[in-house]
Amino acid sequence: MRIPILKLHDYLLISVQVELDDQTALQFQEDVLGKIHEEGSRGVVIDLTSVEMIDSFIAKVLGDVVDMSNLMGAKVVLTGIQPAVAITLIDMGIVLDEVPTALDLEQGLERLQLELEG
Amino acid sequence: MKPFIRDIILEHKIEIMEEWQKEINKFRTDDSLQNITDTMYENTNREFVNKLILTVQTEGGGDHDELIQFAERLIQLGWPLNYITRGLQEFRKITIETLSETSDNYCKSIEFFQEIEDWIDGIVNLLVNQYSGSWENTVFLQKMALKELSAPLIPVFDNISVMPLIGTIDTERAKLIMENLLDGVIEHRSQVVLIDITGVPVVDTMVAHHIIQASEAVRLVGAKCILVGIRPEIAQTIVNLGIDLGKFPTKSTLKKGIESALELTKRQIVEIEQ
Amino acid sequence: MQVQTHVDIHSEWGIVAARQAGRKLAREIGFGSVDQARITTAISELARNIYLYANKGQIQIEEVTVSGKRGIKIIAVDEGPGIKDLRRVMEDGFTTSGGLGAGLPGVKRLMDEFDIDSEMNAGTSISAIKWLR
């Protein structure tokens, strides 16, 4: 299963709509990095509104995507993390410290613009 | 209870009742009984002892309805539990004393004492259960009330909300606060949330931990947290306990917090020239 | 007869199947959305551990009632190599797989009760309960 990645000017937009199993998550990591390379994107918004659960593995994959993208010169913002998911992550002691977040896709794009200008 | 024991008790009913009322009057000076009038006190005593004697009269001793109703009324009127327990202790003492002074030899036997003990213990258990049931109910209702009080998220400007925290924060309340906070952030699309701890009496490591977790969760869903209402003594305890709040912004007052929230969302309040 | 589900873990798909079964039962018992996420995540961690370290095993999910309290119980059993140092795996940040090291200590924090039993070269059994509040 592959998660579609949309391109909008300098940005990539990704809305994760499926339950993430390990293989899909890893495939997703690869696809995002490939696409950044291909398009020379400067920013990525990953929307997680429909994701009902993030365990330590998926959290690690997401954190890695952010770090790897940063290395390639693209800023990543995670959006739409659900309250239940956020509380579970905090309970587990996973803070995703360095990862920028926003409420939804719209605010995520604004935040990206802000980060890239500043 | 054996019929002849019942007969002996009923035979000495008047003595026991008089003696008991004398003893129970010694508790009259207790703090918890101060605001009860003398007539009320006497009437209640008389009723209490009558109901106790009644449990002897009724066959099998199983029918305690009248006593239960009596206790229910005392609970409603706010009489302390120790009025009942002391009353019963005295009643037991006096019954045994009075009867062992009689000529009947059986009244001096262990078996007799046990009969009396069993009878009174049954009543004690019954009434104490009733009292504690009413307390549990009260505690439950207060818990519910506290839950309802727990931390509403109030939107004050577009994208800015305030959550005033009042009272002690324990683990259960912290969980509730966190859920309210995050659901509110999503509902109101808040970009900045001010958590006001002016009304929190004590901030220890536990409370600080809960607040830090809440603000981290807020950040994950995509908003920013500012902690406001930090009184001097709270700042002192936080530093003295070595709690690191360095990671998120704090302000002394809600007013300053709102100013910086407006700044974060690129707005400001200006005076209009007339 | 209380509800009980078994999911065999022998591929990554087992992980997904186990957490879906867990979410379904948690919802049926009446857990709120936050606790549903906690339970599902705990199942996911336990199932992944089986897959990563023992290759195959089983997740059992069942409803429990103890003295009037209702809850959900997760049991993860495998016949893998066992855990060498039980104390260390419960430390935050300890990992042998290159993950976040949040797995087992995370599960303990997500659930209300946690019990682990492991024997070298014989297998590991973990049980965890979340009570309905």
Automatic annotation (TrEMBL), chain A:
Domain of life: Bacteria
Pfam families found in the cross-reference section: STAS (PF01740)
Residue ranges occupied by any STAS domain in the UniProt entry: 1-112
Name this protein carries in UniProt: RsbT antagonist protein RsbS
Biological source species: Salipaludibacillus aurantiacus
UniProtKB/TrEMBL annotation, chain B:
SUPFAM superfamilies: SpoIIaa-like
Keywords, ordered alphabetically: Phosphoprotein
InterPro entries noted in UniProt: Bact_StressResp_Reg, Globin/Proto, RsbRA_N, STAS_dom, STAS_dom_sf
Domain of life of the organism encoding this protein: Bacteria
MF terms (GO), sorted A to Z: heme binding; oxygen binding
Ranges for domain STAS: 150-261
Gene3D superfamilies found in the cross-reference section: Globins, STAS domain
Name recorded for this polypeptide: RsbT co-antagonist protein RsbR
UniProtKB/TrEMBL annotation, chain C:
InterPro entries: HATPase_C_sf, HATPase_dom
UniProt keywords, alphabetically: Kinase, Transferase
CDD domains: HATPase_RsbT-like
Pfam family, one: HATPase_c_2
Top-level taxon: Bacteria
Gene Ontology MF terms in the entry: kinase activity
Protein name according to UniProt: Serine/threonine-protein kinase RsbT
Manganese found in the keyword field: no
Domain Histidine kinase/HSP90-like ATPase: 34-133
Keyword check for Kinase: yes
